[in-house]
Amino acid sequence: MKKFFARFSRKTWIVVGVVGVVILAILFMALNPGEAPETYQTAKAERGNLAATVGATGTVRAKQSATLTWSTTGTVGAVNAEVGQRVARGDILASLDQQSLNQSVIMAEADLVTAQKALEDLLDSGTASAQAARDLDAAEDAYEKAYNYRKGLNGKITIAETYLEHGVPKVRYTKGYADAETIKDADQKLALAEAKLNDAKRAYERVKDGADPADVAAAEARVAAAKATLAQAAIIAPFSGVVTQASPFVGDQVSVGTSAFRIDDLSNLLVDVQVSEVDINNLSVGQAATLTFDAIAGKEYAGQVVQVGQAGDAVQGVVNFTVTVQLTDADEAIKPGMTVAVNIVVNEVKDAILIPNRAVRVVNGQRVVYLLVNGQPLEVKVTLGASSDTHSVLTNGDIKEGDAIILNPPTMNMLIFGG
Is 240 among the domain residues? Predict the structure, then answer.
């Protein structure tokens, strides 16, 4: 026997010994699984609130944004705004030197004065109404005379004839009837008098309570046209906002289309995000959202869904819908063009038992959770409701608040939840 053991080297016996120890350790652990509870990571089942969210990324934009360009050629004579300045609607941000303008713009100033004076006269003067009343009276008198004359031709009339007696003209009156030509002429005069009367009535009706609305509209159009031409010599803010870009300097030579300013309404910021067709039916206007920025560390902003797209766009076989979120607590740190991560709360459950998602497994098509009871894993079948990235709501299952949930349960014959 001694010779048998001597046939093997000391090194060989060491290897055999180590292998034997490993085999014994494996057999020991298989026969006594409860002897190593420290291999399980656990977390207590807790009661709390859960918010299920849909996440996406987008870019900040202002609800109103405008890039302003020059409408005529000339030399910049004045610049009244700079980047970061708040401006009101109608403010003149910059203007051209009048001497550098073309003739049509220069003449617009004189045209504006004339058009405004004509409009004021039209609105304030009573001349038109008074004259229309006089014209109506005259038309009524003329019609009455024409009517009476024509009516008199229906019976016998007195015909005056002129003759000479002893070389002196004399008038002799005889009874007779009007001829057809006389009646026709009287009818035409009566029709003309009636038409003029109707014209006078319409003219009076238009101005009896003030200026004719059509005349006023025409005068206002002439004023607006002159103002529009004159406005070509300036850059005017179309709405209240903040100047986010400014290009002109005094002395610059500009032409039609040259960029001047950009204005954004920073009081109303929006984010457009693309949401998958899988999630779009979970979204609706009014849902709350949280927003975080890479450029603004350590701060979370609030928002609200204000628009949900009703038509999807397919890109490389993936259908997405545009959803618009409005920032409700934006500050000066947020600027148009920034990238933002948006999480929209689509479901919120309060005061429920929450199960860590990493603890859930699927065994034979059934979701299960393992509890650590007396150092041993105990399988519990569960039904889960709403989920977030980290937890799910327990809707059915024998798990109580405070139970120790195994986060790394046995993996034999099971699938990881969500895998």
Answer: no
Question: Do 8 and 56 fall into the same domain?
Answer: no
Nearest-angstrom CA–CA distance, 95 and 250: 9
- Domain interval for residue 133: 127-209
Please tell me whether residues 55 and 23 are part of one structural domain: no
Q: Which of 1-5, 213-217, 282-286, 390-394 has the lowest mean pLDDT?
A: 1-5
Paired with 171 in beta bridges are: 162
- Determine the Cα–Cα distance for residues 295 and 347; give it in Å rounded to an integer: 28
- Both 151 and 276 in a single domain? no
Same domain, 24 and 57: no
Confidence of residue 37 (pLDDT cuts 50, 70, 90): very low
| Inside any domain, residue 8 | yes
The 10s digit of each residue's pLDDT in 190-219 is: 889 888 888 878 877 766 666 667 766 776
The closest of 382, 374, 377, 376 to 400, measured between CA atoms, is: 382
Compute the distance between CA of residue 15 and CA of residue 125 in angstroms, rounded to an integer.
121
In a domain, 118, yes or no: no
**Residue 216: how many other CB atoms lie within 10 Å:** 14
On the question of pLDDT at 389 being above 80, the answer is: no
Report whether pLDDT(29) > 70.
no
299: in domain:
yes
The residue among 172, 189, 209 that closes a domain is 209
Better-scored residue on pLDDT, 237 or 278:
237
- Domain stops at, among 209, 229, 248: 209
The Cα 411–Cα 404 span in angstroms is 18
Query: At a CB cut-off of 8 Å and minimum separation 6, what does 88 contact?
Result: 237, 240
> What are the CA-CA distances from residue 303 to residues 194, 272, 346, 360, 393 (Å)?
72, 12, 13, 32, 25
